[in-house]
Design goal:
This protein has 451 residues and is of the alpha/beta class. The protein has a domain at 36-264: Rossmann fold, CATH 3.40.50. It is built from 18 helices and 10 strands. The protein has helices at 29-32, 37-48, 65-78, 100-118, 126-144, 170-186, 204-207, 211-223, 243-246, 252-255, 270-283, 298-307, 312-323, 336-354, 359-370, 377-384, 388-401, 425-446; strands at 53-58, 91-92, 155-156, 161-162, 197-202, 233-239, 263-264, 375-376, 405-411, 414-419. The strands form 3 sheets. Strands 2-5-6-1-7 form a 5-stranded parallel β-sheet. A hairpin with a 4-residue loop joins strand 3 and strand 4. The protein is globular.
Length: 451
């Protein structure tokens, strides 16, 4: 993949960065965020009518859950009549986080970090100094690979800080958390008065991909049930569509704390995604140019949108893959056929880099890519005169293991295979080459004879 010179498009930086929009990022979040009017209205109504919230925000990976949560936090942090404090760095759900003490430390540490960014003089307050000590020692022990930060023999009690051989209890941490929420409500932060705190926890998609992670998550929400009922704290938990049904709803005592309808996030429309990219490019336009040049035509975005069912992260990553295949400067946006040809080449190069296919294996893969229908191993045995065991082990197994092909359906107990979504562009490589060649011929005929 070649480095991409974004300046050739009149852009300062990459407009297709797959990281979520965030407060303080290269893109102004209140300008770059597009769409979601119904979801924003729902969230505003919920926050305006309640003094605490526990809400699950559910949807497929890459659909835009994190950007929505970050935008909502930003709006309520700076523009609403009832302001709510938040930290720009969302808390990432992982195995280490799923216990009450670690969860509280993460929240406290994230709040302190945000205060340090916005109004560092506040850290001179005795409570915040004490909480900073707790977070510091916890971080140091975590970095050193040591044991629990709370069995280290340091007492950070509510009244004074002394060195005594007692542990910091979860109850004491809860009290400190409540003290911190009250501090936020009773002290101006960078000149603003806040009425509460938003806590945003991300990436339950990854945790819930295993049975062990599901069990740990169920236990975790039972353990933090009392924390979730803290007045003036608004919790947003982001994850897959089954987060509420399979995790929150398991125990009625946990379910009763949550808003009973999860906010389900569906993909943006094609036009909304095009508009979002245009807004990003306008925000990243170089100061010395009159206008930017679109790297690809809108039809390219529509094509990739259909491939990935609106997964904006995959769409942006694919556009970067396309542009990384072309090192020369582009005089105009890439057409659909040009872009699909480049994306197909990128996917083929990726395959050659991750597995060293023999010529025979490449021949089988080309056949699978060019086929108009799904293919069974029996067909490969017959067409290429191979043994059944050889087709299964030598040809299909490495392609399945590297997620290049997958089982698509079963007919009469016979499985049929096709390319995964990531490698569908191999089909486009074949078709687009024909169309690009035809386009070259047509354009050549239109040139003056002397050229």
């Amino acid at each position: 993949m070649n480095p991409i010179n974004w300046q050739q498009f009149g852009l300062r930086k990459n407009p297709y960065d797959t990281l979520p929009l965030i407060e303080g990022g290269d893109l102004l979040i209140d300008k770059a965020f597009i769409g979601r009017s119904a979801e924003r209205k729902f969230l505003d109504s919920l926050f305006e009518s309640n003094n605490r919230i526990c809400l699950t925000v559910c949807g497929d990976i890459g659909v835009g859950k994190t950007s929505l949560a970050n935008f909502h936090k930003f709006i309520w942090k700076y523009t609403k009549e009832k302001l709510l404090f938040s930290f720009r760095r969302e808390i990432e759900a992982n195995n280490d986080l799923l216990n009450k003490k670690t969860f509280l430390i993460e929240i406290i540490g994230s709040v302190l970090r945000e205060i340090r960014l916005l109004d560092p003089d506040l850290l001179k307050n005795e409570l915040l100094k004490k909480l900073s000590q707790i977070v510091d020692i916890s971080q140091t022990i975590a970095l050193s690979g040591g044991g629990s930060a709370f069995g280290f023999g340091l007492d950070f009690g509510k009244e004074e800080t002394t060195t005594t051989p007692i542990q910091l209890s979860a109850t004491l941490l809860e009290e400190h958390f409540i003290d911190l929420v009250n501090f936020i409500k009773n002290n101006k932060i960078k000149g603003r008065t806040y009425s509460g705190l938003i806590v945003h926890v991300n990436n339950f998609d990854i945790i819930l991909s295993s049975e062990k992670g599901k069990k740990m998550s169920i236990d975790f929400f039972q353990e933090i049930r009392d924390i979730l009922q803290t007045p003036d704290v608004y919790f947003l938990f982001l994850g897959p569509k089954n987060l509420f049904k399979d995790i929150i709803s398991v125990h009625q005592r946990v379910k009763s704390i949550f808003y009973q309808t999860p906010l389900v996030i569906n993909p943006l429309s094609k036009n909304e995604i095009v508009k979002a990219f245009e807004e990003r490019m306008q925000l990243l336009k170089s100061n010395d140019v009159a206008s930017y040049i679109k790297p690809v035509e809108d039809e390219v975005i529509y094509k990739i949108y259909d491939l990935y069912n609106g997964d904006i992260r995959s769409i942006m990553a694919s556009i970067v893959d396309i542009l990384g295949q072309y090192s020369e400067k582009l005089a105009k946006p890439l057409s659909v056929n040009e872009a699909m040809l480049l994306l197909g080449k990128e996917r083929w190069e990726k395959i050659e880099n991750i597995i060293k296919l023999t010529d025979e294996q490449k021949e089988i893969l080309r056949y699978l890519a060019s086929a108009e229908k799904f293919i069974s191993q029996k067909e490969i045995v017959k067409i290429f005169n191979k043994t059944k065991s050889n087709v299964s082990w030598y040809y299909f197994k490495p392609l399945k293991e590297h997620n290049i092909i997958e089982e698509k359906n079963i007919e009469n107990r016979t499985p049929y295979y096709g390319l995964t979504a990531d490698y569908i562009p191999l089909k486009w490589l074949i078709n687009s080459q024909k169309e690009v060649n035809k386009s070259i011929d047509d354009k050549s005929k239109q040139l003056p004879l002397n050229l």
